[in-house]
Amino acid sequence: MEKAKHPLVLARESRGWTQMDLAKRARVPRSSVSAIESGRLTPSVSTALHLARVLELSVEALFDEAAAASAAANAMWSWAPDSEMCRFIGAEVKGRRIFYPINGQAHAAHLHDGIWKSGEELPASLPGMELTLVMASCDPASALMEAAYARESGYRLVSFAYNGMHSLELLKDGLVHVAGLHRSNREHPARNADTVRTVLGEGYCLLRGAHWDQGLAFAPGHGLSSVASVLDKAQIWAMRESGSVARDWLDVICAEMGQAPSGREVHSHRAVADSIRMGWADAGVCVKLSAKELELSFLSLQEEALDFIFHESMLEDPRIQALIRLLQSKSYRRVLSELPGYDSRETGGLNFN
What we know:
Layout: H1 7-14, H2 19-26, H3 30-38, H4 45-55, H5 59-62, H6 65-69, E1 75-77, E2 85-93, E3 96-101, E4 114-117, E5 132-136, H7 142-153, E6 156-160, H8 164-172, E7 178-185, H9 191-199, E8 204-218, H10 227-233, E9 237-240, H11 245-256, E10 263-266, H12 269-277, E11 283-287, H13 288-293, E12 297-311, H14 318-328, H15 330-337, E13 342-343, E14 350-352
Parallel strand pairs: 1-3, 5-6, 5-7, 9-10, 9-11
Antiparallel strand pairs: 2-3, 2-4, 7-12, 8-11, 8-12, 8-13, 8-14
Helix pairs in contact: 2-3, 2-4, 7-14
């Protein structure tokens, strides 16, 4: 027996609309419309209202109570909270409702969607989850991007600071929409694409974020002018975690000098610069922006290409379209080019892997 069509399908088809037509009218992702119609996703309150309004029907005519009750089973943490109580942000990713603890990995301070306490269940839904784009990236300019994205699009971008390989794993697991990766350089311009194919497979898009300078950051005033002189002077390093490009660079240059780096492990470019500025470390590898923001000395090691990775099925999602428009806009590219170490001439370029 043929399965009965969802009321949303019947309402849409009676008007001769495609899923994309309905998505554009209701300002929700087409992927959400598809997931709702197939029964894989229960809409949030705001999504249900948007859909009902454009279809000129009641919410009750489109969605039943049983579907709403099943939403709780479709909610999950992105990663475990690190305390007994935390603020969180919610987003819809691949038809799932995912909740993100706001912790030290967030690039910027965010208004939270709720507060969770140990022992409590996650909410089944929150208004506006389908309007949030979640990114994992170590780009220290993410806070600038988030502000510009919200101002220009009306959507919300939330970025968490993870290195490129960790970001790809989060994307692979369906926990974020976008992952940042910066393994390409002038000698190996295809390394980002190659890494994506190795980790994720085919079917992904690479949106150029920028080129940036990565190098050695160290406290000013020591008269150091070469990599060798920094290596000779540094005793305690601010070391990025294994798997990051910055850590790979540190291991390579120290090995060339017959040294084994020792110090404290940190998890972002800004944390490297903070450690040096506070006197907890002598030197570290980070991007130029993070070093110059804290008035540190900097020696460039190489120029790298930062790409933002997302699955091609997301290409028509309005949240992704808003990100593409932002990166291709002259105003954003101009501001990005004014940051220390950033080159925005290729920003916004889109490639299919």
